[in-house]
Amino acid sequence: MEPVQDTYRPPLEYVKGVPLIKYFAEALGPLESFQAWPDDVLISTYPKSGTTWVSEILDLIYQGGDLQKCQRAPIYVRVPFLEFKMPGCPTGFELLEDTPAPRLLKTHLPLALLPQTLLDQKVKVVYVARNAKDVAVSFYHFYRMAKVHPDPGTWDSFLEDFMAGEVSYGSWYQHVQEWWELRHTHPVLYLFYEDMKENPKREIQKILEFVGRSLPEETVEDIVQHTSFQEMKNNAMTNYRTLPSDLLDHSISAFMRKGITGDWKSTFTVAQNERFEAYYAEKMAGCNLHFRSEL
Ligand code: A3P
How far does the centroid of ligand 1 lie from the alpha carbon of residue 184, in Å? Predict the structure, then answer.
């Protein structure tokens, strides 16, 4: 049996040039036999962009707004995470095999690593993007608490790694742009975390229309209420406290940390911000994607 210490903080492994959590890299082989179904819906995000939030919204939509039904299991069981693998836990692929249609699936994979079957089956994609600065800060705290990542080092060195794409799942810049471009050939609803913060009801209506469902207005309002940051932080089925605490250590930083836009301002120095902005302009040149870093 693997010594327990070996499960902590292994170095990232590169697959087709993309750095991944070691266990997730190992999960990609078995995933080759995964078969997507045309009525699957895929939730895709770069990490720390609002995946859990939109997952809970979609499960509530699928359950007709029934809060009790959404208490049936933790979010990572209700919405299996395609490439998930951790010592002592069932893999995302294993969970999927027990999930009846219509299925909700989650991934953070860049297109180069996405199982082709999802594209072939024209599986609808709900993509959520979040401004890069808040993602970097959220990711740093996630690296600190989720011990499947390498040690993040100092904030300054982590920010350099983030800008260079030397973090789990690689480049934020490439991820948000390639899924944005996919809209031209594939059914993608491209959402922004900041828009969800600004007007969650409006964004939930967009999701309903995209997945071809409708709900009474009061139910939509209940969903807004139930998926507020505070509610989800207090909900054991969404706050990730059901995973082993030696893998996700909430005493270092909670998974449901702050849930705001603009938190980067309390972390970036003026010099870091200037450097980040200049590099950002270079990496996003020619792309018509626009993010808001404050509301
Ligand atoms: P912070 O670390 O900035 O607080 P993901 O689910 O993709 O891993 O994203 C996690 C981030 O989304 C965390 O950001 C978390 O607090 C935030 N988040 C989760 N649920 C949320 C909600 N209902 N409303 C707003 N933010 C939420």
Answer: 28
Catalytic positions, written as ranges: 108
Q: Which amino acid is at 50?
A: G
Nearest CA to ligand 1 atom 18: 259
What tens-digit pLDDT sequence spans the chain (295 residues)?
344 445 689 999 999 999 999 999 999 999 999 999 999 999 999 999 999 999 999 999 999 999 999 999 999 999 999 999 988 889 999 999 999 999 999 999 999 999 999 999 999 999 999 999 999 999 999 999 999 999 999 999 999 999 999 999 999 999 999 999 999 999 999 999 999 999 999 999 999 999 999 999 999 999 999 999 999 999 999 999 999 888 899 999 999 999 999 999 999 999 999 999 999 999 999 999 999 999 9
Which residues form the pocket of ligand 1, taking CB atoms under 6 Å from any ligand atom? 45, 47-53, 134, 138, 141, 227-229, 232, 256-259, 263
86: which 2 tokens? 């951790």
Residue indicated by tokens 């998926």? 227
Calpha distance 180→287 (Å, rounded) = 9
Q: Identity (one letter) of the amino acid at 146?
A: A
* Cα–Cα distance, 291 to 86 (Å, whole number): 33
CATH of the domain spanning 14-283, picked from 3.30.230.10, 3.40.50.300, 3.40.50.620, 3.40.50.2300: 3.40.50.300
Mutation test of ligand 1: which of 21, 52, 167 has the most ligand atoms closer than 8 Å to its C-beta?
Answer: 52
For the chain, the C-alpha Rg in angstroms (whole number) is 18
Best substitution site from 43, 51, 53, 203 to test ligand 1's pocket, by max atoms within 8 Å of Cβ?
53
For the chain, which residues make up each domain, given as ranges? 14-283
